[in-house]
Design brief:
There is one protein chain. By secondary structure, this protein is α/β, with parallel strands linked by helices. The chain has two domains: 4-379, TIM Barrel (Alpha-Beta Barrel); 385-476, Golgi alpha-mannosidase II (Immunoglobulin-like, Sandwich), CATH 2.60.40. Helices cover 25% and strands 15% of the residues. The strands form four sheets. The chain has a seven-stranded parallel sheet with strand order 7-6-3-2-1-9-8. It has a five-stranded antiparallel sheet with strand order 10-11-12-17-14, covered by helices on one side. Strands 13-16-15 form a three-stranded antiparallel sheet, with no helix packed on it. The longest helix is centred in the N-terminal third of the chain and has 28 residues, at 4-31. Mean pLDDT is 90; it is low at 1-9, 36-40 and 469-476. InterPro entries: FUC_metazoa-typ, GH, Glyco_hydro_29, Glyco_hydro_29_N. Its EC number is 3.2.1.51. This is alpha-L-fucosidase.
Length: 478
């Protein structure tokens, strides 16, 4: 029985999830990223054969990890920014002075090879690629870079977490994705404000009269950058990106986050010279090989390659927060996965390891739940194409050659409806159990009647086997 406390908790979680989505635009404005419709610009996405895996990968693991996790009281990078509207709106502010934040690097001491724990569990659960925050906006690089002075060469005797991650990906059969933030708040700490909304640049919101804040969140006058500073910064970004491209063998994906005004540091063409089969998102150059809508689904089916990224944890924070170790249920994650795959995209879902690299208990539980679902229903999301949803189906649908897969989301009631079709299936059955499902034609539609006893609390998949003797015949079934 649902109690008032349950309802209140659910309402608060829904509010936090909305704030996660609202925070996206507010954060992107600061780091110089905006949504650019990929194929409205003259650009040729990478057609190298090594990029083909992305078309049907389905599921990727996003890993936000860095020095912010040391105390578990602030988000990665954004913890330094005072006046964050997305935290103020939920009454749970997680803010730290920039000077204190940067000192967290001195206490960042992860255990031996935590990436193996993350990625072995992910691979068993059906993930096919992973993306690690090699350097977030705070500027701390998880490898011993020769560029800059805020990386593991100075705090961890040159330990290379990027190298450990890449090798763990390969051991576990996952494609390698490296996140890199061109904006760097450590490098520019003396020439920027740590008060949200006090400076306009890069399309950011500016509030009239809001003071600029310094390293102690004290009001300051912003100092102009010295002559040649921007050019030095571009050289620094280029140097670090080149290290990522040349020191770790084959890299499958470069995941930029912002920096439209920094795109002269390195071009997509230059990146491809060193990694011909790489995929690059649109967030730095305004063009790229795939789009990445964040914390919200697109309003309509995207054209071309795309992935949806979102936070798995309950709160609106990407990295580890001690008060937000609870993760959304597998039903949420699998529902979003079904919706994304029905439109031909991949789902990049985020976790936040603790400072020592261990995972919150909920993550291991969720991995196990997803692993079990993949065991019986994974074929409905891998190596398939997006189906005619919602125009011809009331549930998300994916299409293989002879089978189409209809995903019944939790709480969905009534029959599955295939609109305006006279096609007769050869077989209709529950993918989890093999149980046959009754169907009938009514009003020009095909109705699939799924008994209540066949439903679970997760996503239930009904498979339709069409009578087909050659590839492509099923394309005319609806």
């Amino acid at each position: 029985m649902t109690t008032r406390n349950d309802e209140a908790r659910d309402h608060m979680k829904a509010k936090e999830r909305k704030e996660s989505s609202d925070a996206v635009a507010l954060q992107h404005a600061v780091i110089g990223h905006a949504d650019y419709p990929l194929f409205e610009r003259l650009y040729s996405p990478n057609s190298h054969p090594d990029t083909a895996w992305f078309e049907t990968a389905a599921l990727g693991l996003f890993i936000h990890w860095g020095i912010s996790a040391v105390d578990g009281e602030c988000d990665l990078s954004w913890g330094m920014m005072a006046g964050k509207p997305w935290e103020a709106s939920i009454g749970e502010e997680k803010t730290i002075l920039p000077e204190d934040y940067f000192r967290l690097a001195e206490r960042f001491r992860p255990k031996s090879n935590p990436a193996e724990e993350w990625l072995s569990g992910a691979a068993e659960a059906g993930f096919r690629y992973a993306v690690l925050t090699t350097r977030h906006h705070d500027g701390f690089s998880l490898w011993p870079s020769k560029w800059g002075q805020f990386n593991t060469a100075f705090t961890l005797n040159g330990r290379d977490f990027v190298g450990e991650f890449v090798e763990a990906c390969r051991r576990n059969g996952l494609k390698v994705g490296l996140y890199y933030s061109p904006p760097d708040w450590y490098y520019n700490r003396h020439y920027m404000s740590f008060h949200y909304g006090s400076a306009a640049g890069s399309g950011a919101t500016s509030f009239a009269g809001r003071a600029h804040y310094g390293m102690h969140h004290e009001p300051i006058q912003l100092q102009p950058q010295p002559q040649g500073w921007h050019e030095q910064f571009l050289a620094y970004i280029r140097g670090q990106v080149m290290e990522l491209l040349t020191q770790y063998g084959k890299i499958d994906m470069l995941w930029f986050d912002g920096g439209r005004d920094l795109s002269d540091a390195i071009s997509i063409e230059e990146i491809r010279k060193f990694q011909p089969g790489i995929l690059i998102n649109t967030r730095m150059h305004g063009v790229g090989d795939f789009d990445t809508p964040e914390c919200h689904m697109p309003k309509e089916r995207p054209v071309g390659r795309w992935e949806h990224c979102n936070i798995w944890a309950e709160g609106p924070w990407w990295a580890y927060i001690r008060s937000s170790e609870q993760y959304r249920p597998a039903s949420w994650m699998l529902s979003r996965l079904a919706e994304v795959r029905a439109w031909g995209g991949n789902f990049l879902v985020n976790i936040g390891p603790k400072a020592d690299g261990t995972l919150p208990e909920d993550i291991s539980v969720r991995f196990a739940e997803v692993r079990e679902w993949m065991r019986h229903s994974g074929e409905s999301i891998y190596d398939v194409k997006g189906g005619p949803y919602p125009e011809c189906s009331n549930v998300p649908v994916t299409c293989g050659w002879a089978y189409w897969y209809y995903h019944l989301l939790p709480g969905m009631e009534g029959p599955v409806i295939l609109k305006e079709t006279t096609a007769i299936p050869e077989r209709v059955f529950m993918l989890r159990t093999g149980h046959s499902i009754t169907f009938r034609h009514e009003g020009g539609h095909l109705l699939l009647i799924v008994p209540d006893e066949c439903r679970t609390t997760l996503v239930d998949v009904v498979a339709i086997q069409w009578t087909a003797s050659r590839e492509g015949e099923t394309g005319d079934r609806v």
